[in-house]
Amino acid sequence: xxxxxxxxxxxxxxxxxxxxxxxxxxxxxxxxxxxxxxxxxxxxxxxxxxxxxxxxxxxxxxxxxxxxxxxxxxxxxxxxxxxxxxxxxxxxxxxxxxxxxxxxxxxxxxxxxxxxxxxxxxxxxxxxxxxxxxxxxxxx
Length: 140
Fold this sequence. Notes:
Blueprint: H1 2-28, E1 38-43, E2 47-53, E3 57-58, E4 80-83, E5 88-93, E6 105-108, E7 113-115, E8 118-121, E9 124-127, E10 134-139
């Protein structure tokens, strides 16, 4: 009897782990872009799959919503962005969030959109399209 209970408990724990593991990609995908988000797009001109993120940090997750780029990782794959917050300016960073102040970034004014493009940094031009690792915010 104890073996059956132990086997049942192990099976339930395994099933729970499998179900949680299966849910992770869905949680990582964008459910949409809402007010307060930086809405990143896979394609230029706010086209294709998208990913909404409201907090500062690295772009962990995948593009969702269908279209070009659906299911692709956001990090280093975004071509355009819409700042959906009217109270904060957005900075898209070339480097990971912990190194954000030591590398190139592109500024997107509150409430505006932009294609990620070339920025001047330390004497060279850096292309931010498909070279975007994280974001931060600046209150206006």
